[in-house]
């Protein structure tokens, strides 16, 4: 097949989805950054097995290098201003996927969990064939749906630590104030891990895929 | 727009180029727009940084924090209580975090509480009270999860008089100086300061009158130690700990927001939980 034998597929990613995606990027960045400014003021979390500390959140050098120390007031202000935009953008995204029917591409079905495993094996080069997929493969469906649930989790745990008296029922439901703060933090680590895998997959998928998230259209060879 | 027709056999070079050109043109256009759009968050960042500071925060942030308070007033109630715990869960070693305004070693015998009640139709009233005056009010115990603005929390046991009982007993907090709060003619704020005036907080009157807001003189059943604010401190569970001023020297009522130590350092004034 000659390289010029290709055609344009319109609207692989609807304009609205692209907006929500790219608007979310700086908003989440601001939320994570201001969250770190807040977290520094009390940063006890670590992963420990017996007496061995495996991961410390975070080493002093981390806070120092990113200039995150002694900025609690500033962090709280950014967090409690941008929480609105982050929430609104997330709610609009979910509403759009529901009303447009786009959710059908995103929500996993009963085959997704098995297929996602096959996708992982394929992506790791262990399995030659990837399972059949339409717009998103099973692993993508699970990842993109999970990250939305994580967003909901951040919203709820955030509310629970923001207003633990007014929303005492919610704080209690989440295991108390300390527990809600820990979950809120863990979800943020989850976003960072999601981001790392997401970037690796975008690089792997190549230019056409990336362009479709900006320009909306995809380019595929004839006959496909 | 979708081109589903098969290419004719021997399709000319010119038509093939047209598809490529089309892709090229649309790609350039989309990425140009994308670049321009990505200047918007950068511009917002710069704009926030360029705003004049009000008590250490950009003025727009102060406005949003004020708006957040109004949202709280719509959705939340001052009647909601902070969860309480069995007294056995209270910490034995109670954490000390702030020392501003404390004068350890000062004789508690010298201590007195100054209360100022302005009046619309006169010079107002000034009261000077002793610790026994506060102890004469009904005593309440409070075991709750004290929350520091830094993020840590600790279950603590405090005892003292309700601020609302104190206000009722001495007919404080209303503009018309009447004991009966039926008129709801409350001043909007209460200010508290240490005797030396070095630490100071402001509270909205609703939070001050909250049933869990105590003028506390005991911790774990013992008189307060110097570092915990002897002889009398505020304990206000509906706010972060910075509002629970130690060693109260002066209490006053006002319609303007009283000065607040941490608010001046860039924190939100309200700090409601």
From TrEMBL, chain A:
SUPFAM superfamilies: Transmembrane di-heme cytochromes. Its main location: membrane. It comes from Nibrella viscosa. This is Cytochrome b/b6 domain-containing protein. Residues 13-216 form the Cytochrome b561 bacterial/Ni-hydrogenase domain. InterPro entries: Cyt_b561_bac/Ni-Hgenase, Di-haem_cyt_TM, Hydrogenase_cytochrome. Coiled coil: none annotated. Pfam families: Ni_hydr_CYTB. It is found in: Cell membrane. Keywords: Cell membrane, Membrane, Transmembrane, Transmembrane helix. It is a multi-pass membrane protein. The chain crosses the membrane at residues 21-42, 76-99, 142-162, 182-203.
UniProtKB/TrEMBL annotation, chain B:
Residues 106-262 form the Oxidoreductase molybdopterin-binding domain. It comes from the Bacteria. InterPro entries: OxRdtase_Mopterin-bd_dom (IPR000572), OxRdtase_Mopterin-bd_sf (IPR036374). Residues 1-21 are annotated as: Disordered. This is Oxidoreductase molybdopterin-binding domain-containing protein. It comes from Nibrella viscosa.
């Amino acid at each position: 097949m000659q390289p010029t034998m290709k055609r344009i597929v319109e609207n692989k990613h609807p304009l609205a989805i692209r907006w929500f995606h790219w608007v979310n990027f700086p908003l989440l960045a601001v939320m994570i950054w201001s969250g770190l400014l807040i977290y520094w003021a009390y940063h006890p979390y670590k992963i420990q097995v017996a007496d061995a500390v495996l991961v410390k959140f975070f080493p002093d050098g981390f806070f120092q290098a990113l200039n995150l120390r002694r900025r609690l007031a500033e962090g709280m202000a950014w967090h409690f201003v941008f929480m609105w935009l982050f929430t609104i953008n997330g709610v609009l995204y979910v509403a759009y996927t529901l009303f447009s029917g786009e959710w059908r591409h995103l929500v996993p079905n009963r085959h997704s969990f098995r297929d996602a495993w096959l996708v992982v094996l394929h992506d790791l080069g262990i399995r030659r064939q990837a399972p059949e997929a339409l717009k998103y493969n099973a692993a993508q469906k699970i990842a993109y749906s999970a990250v939305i649930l994580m967003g909901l989790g951040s919203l709820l745990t955030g509310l629970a630590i923001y207003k633990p008296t007014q929303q005492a029922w919610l704080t209690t439901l989440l295991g108390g104030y300390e527990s809600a703060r820990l979950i809120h933090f863990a979800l943020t680590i989850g976003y960072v891990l999601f981001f790392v895998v997401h970037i690796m997959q975008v690089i792997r998928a190549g230019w056409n895929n990336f362009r479709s998230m900006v320009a909306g259209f995809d380019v595929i060879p004839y006959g496909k | 727009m979708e081109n589903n027709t098969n290419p004719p056999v021997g399709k000319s070079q010119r038509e093939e180029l047209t598809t490529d050109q089309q892709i090229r043109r649309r790609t350039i256009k989309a990425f140009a727009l994308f670049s321009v759009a990505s200047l918007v968050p950068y511009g917002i960042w710069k704009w926030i940084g360029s705003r004049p500071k009000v008590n250490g925060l950009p003025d727009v942030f102060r406005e949003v924090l004020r708006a957040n308070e109004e949202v709280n007033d719509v959705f939340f109630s001052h009647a909601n209580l902070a969860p309480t715990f069995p007294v056995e869960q209270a910490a034995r070693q109670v954490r000390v975090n702030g020392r501003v305004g404390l004068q350890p070693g000062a004789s508690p015998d010298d201590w007195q509480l100054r209360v100022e009640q302005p009046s619309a139709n006169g010079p107002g009233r000034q009261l000077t009270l002793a610790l026994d005056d506060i102890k004469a009010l009904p005593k309440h115990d409070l075991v709750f999860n004290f929350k520091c603005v830094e993020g840590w929390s600790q279950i603590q046991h405090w005892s003292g008089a309700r601020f609302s009982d104190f206000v009722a007993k001495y007919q404080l907090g209303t503009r018309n100086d009447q004991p009966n709060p039926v008129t709801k003619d409350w001043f909007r704020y209460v200010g508290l300061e240490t005797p030396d005036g070095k630490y100071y907080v402001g509270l909205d009157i609703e939070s001050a009158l909250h049933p869990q807001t105590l003028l506390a003189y005991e911790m774990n059943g013992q008189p307060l130690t110097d570092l915990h604010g002897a002889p009398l401190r505020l304990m206000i569970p509906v706010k972060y700990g910075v509002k629970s001023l130690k060693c109260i020297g002066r209490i006053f009522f006002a319609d303007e927001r009283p000065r607040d130590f941490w608010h001046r350092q860039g924190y939100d004034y309200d700090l409601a939980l």
